[in-house]
Amino acid sequence: MNDALPKKIQPFNRHLLIVPDFGRKKEEKPEVLLPDGYNPPKERYLTADVLAVAKDCTEHIRSLKYRGESSPTIVVDRSMIEEIKIFNKSYYFILENHVVGAVREFHEN
Questions:
Q1: Kind of pairing, strands 89-95 and 15-20?
Q2: Is the pTM for the entire model greater than 0.85?
Q3: Three-state SS at 97
Q4: DSSP state letters, 53-93
Q5: Which residues touch 103 (CB under 8 Å, ≥6 apart)?
């Protein structure tokens, strides 16, 4: 295999390849003094951009990729995201059953 060529991962078995928004924003200083090592609880749900969809996903999940958006945004359960590290890179997958919804403009169906 030629290592100089870029790698592409295609999801199978009803999975979606996503880019989760883990909220890597600049953290604000808390107004209350907290113990060292304390981490506030994380939100259960987060948004993610869809990069690829397995061909065996249901019609409404497959249609996400073909609505004219380059990377549609979905809402997923954070705990169900699978991180797979290969080729010195992290890839994130989620099973279609764990997609809670799709982010749409107000006027869209």
A1: antiparallel
A2: no
A3: helix
A4: E-TTS-HHHHGGGGSS-SS-EEEEEGGG-EEEEETTEEEEE
A5: 47, 72, 73, 74, 75
